[in-house]
Design a protein that fits this description.
Elements (H helix, E strand, L loop, with lengths): L2 E10 L5 E9 L2 E10 L5 E10 L4 E8 L5 E6 L5 E3 L2 E2 L8 E4 L4 H10 L6 E10 L4 E13 L3 E6 L5 E6 L5 E4 L3 E3 L1
Parallel strand pairs: 9-10
Antiparallel strand pairs: 1-2, 1-15, 2-3, 3-4, 4-5, 5-6, 6-7, 7-8, 10-11, 11-12, 12-13, 13-14, 14-15
Length: 183
Amino acid sequence: MSEDFKIVRWREWDGPGIEHLELRQRAGEVLADSVVICSGQTPFAARYRIECDANWHARRVTVDMIGSGRTLVLAADGEGHWLRDGLPVPELEGVIDPDLTVTPFTNTLPIRRLRLSTGQSAEIITAFIEFPALTVVSNPQRYTCLEEGRRYLYESRASDFRREVEIDGDWLVVTYPDFWQRG
């Protein structure tokens, strides 16, 4: 059984924050392990792990807030049913993808899973995890492929937030204007 392994680093657009991500793909699963150090008014560090099946459906998200002892564990069946710390989360019914505010990696999950062609759009709802509070809410979003395999428009359907993200040949974000860029 072969394994595809990558190390990716992003840095904050304006600030000293950094993320170090290790991505493993092997038969039947995708594993992302990362440490994020965020600057800003309330600096913090977090460690997260996202486990997906071979089709990039999230199965488990674990977040540890370094130094605080706070942990979040979300488990999913890949069909849109979620548990938080072992209890059902009805407001996430139908959600496939997590979206962690501390990383551009979670944009890869729907981009890779949806496989949109140039000009195509798709509307999704994510399990939006806000840091450092670790609140989880459902969040409607839209992805539009601007240039297949290279540029996508991300739009929040709950606000006027939108960004054009550039990806590489592995579907990983290279630039997410005003937030992250490859380090």
